[in-house]
Write a structure and sequence with these properties.
By secondary structure, this protein is α+β, with helices and mostly antiparallel strands. It contains 5 helices and 18 strands. Strands 10, 11, 13, 14, 17 and 18 form a 6-stranded mixed β-sheet that branches. Strands 1-7-3-4 form a 4-stranded antiparallel β-sheet, with no helix packed on it. The two termini are about 30 Å apart.
């Protein structure tokens, strides 16, 4: 399972921006609370600052890009300050994560799995992790190339020449190599921005506007149950409208009891909850309904007042179709209803009956 952090570490390896440790000691002058650490960019999250042997890291602000640290309280003249941590060659942790996030969003744009679910970092196939890192490296090197583009060649009176613009040309050449590598991987594996889509013609019922199911071909004497082919559904140019609710998709196994909790940012003891499941949003027929309960008042210092527990029995999960829809609505004492959570429910059919 990929994470932003794991992909960021792989990106640093690809561009040679591995963190290096350091220890720096200096004496406070009693005049300023802002001091320069001669290492940058810094890893602010892992930076440790000691003042006269006392750990004061939590009271020190870190400017990762410039290498400055700022104390909340002015150190006294003569105080000994020791700073220890890691620094990088090019980018801060936030910048690396931004490159990874941008690369993933562009790599997986408009792509869904066989069940129509949006691909996320959490369910990104292992096969696609390296191409995402390669694409992120091109974005990072574009930033380096932009910085290098401001350098100019230097020619001294004695004839010595320093071709500083060569760094820009080398970066642009490397970017082209990485882009070609990403393009080849995507074309050969059928993923990402250069994915080669292979379509299967499907018939759509004129009366119901539903797809006609497709099954894998079988031998004439094969009596086994036909295997249905799950094909990704095209978007037809549809643009998803922005939502104000929290979207949370659920994955349920048929026949198993299922429950999950929702923690809201307000107390829910004066609200009446309702969580229904329908095969199609807006239809009058309710497939089934979650059993919604509230924890005991005062649980975990009042957190229980903000929590809703939703549950389905095994018999209820058997009633669900392969894909269904749900939402969680709360009605206050003024009889005003608002939807706070919505999403899809994907059910995996059970084998042992």
């Amino acid at each position: 399972m990929a994470t932003i952090s794991s992909l960021a570490d792989r990106l640093r390896s690809e561009i040679g921006d591995i963190g290096k440790s350091f220890v720096y000691q200096f004496t406070a002058d009693g005049i300023t609370d802002r001091y320069l650490v001669p290492y940058s960019p810094l890893d602010g999250a892992g930076l440790i600052v000691y003042l006269n042997g006392l750990d004061v890291s939590s009271t020190v602000a870190v400017e990762e890009q410039t290498g400055y640290i700022v104390f909340d309280d002015l150190p006294t003249e003569g105080d000994t300050v020791v700073v220890a941590g890691n620094y990088f060659r090019y980018f801060t942790s936030a910048e690396i994560c931004d490159y990874v996030s941008t690369a993933f969003e562009q790599h997986s744009a408009y792509h869904t799995d066989a069940y129509g679910r949006t691909v996320s970092i959490m369910n990104l196939p292992t096969l696609e992790e390296y191409p995402v890192v390669i694409y992120a490296s091109t974005l990072a090197m574009y930033a380096l190339a932009t910085d290098a583009s401001f350098d100019i060649d230097i020619t001294a009176p004695d004839g010595v020449m320093i071709p500083r613009s060569e760094r820009y040309r080398q970066l642009m050449q490397m970017i082209e190599v990485r882009k070609q590598q990403y393009r080849e991987l995507c074309s050969q594996l059928g993923i990402g921005l250069y994915k080669i889509d292979v379509f299967t013609f499907r018939r759509i019922s004129k009366t119901t506007n539903h797809y006609i199911p497709i099954y894998e071909p079988q031998e004439i004497d094969d009596r086994s149950t036909p295997v249905r082919v799950h094909l990704p559904i095209p978007t037809y140019g549809n643009v998803e409208l922005p939502v104000t609710t929290v979207v949370q998709d659920l994955y349920i196994y048929e026949g198993d009891a299922y429950e999950f909790s929702i923690v809201l940012d307000f107390e829910v003891d004066d609200y009446t909850p309702l969580a229904q499941i329908r095969s199609v949003p807006g239809t009058a027929i309710v497939t089934t309904e979650f059993t919604v309960t509230k924890p005991d008042v005062g649980t975990a210092d009042g957190v229980g007042l903000r929590t809703l527990n939703l549950a389905l029995t095994g018999d209820q999960t058997r009633l669900l179709p392969g894909t269904s829809y749900y939402d969680v609505q709360l009605t206050n004492l003024d009889n005003v209803t608002h939807t706070y959570v919505s999403g899809k429910i994907f059910k995996t059919a059970e084998t042992s009956l």
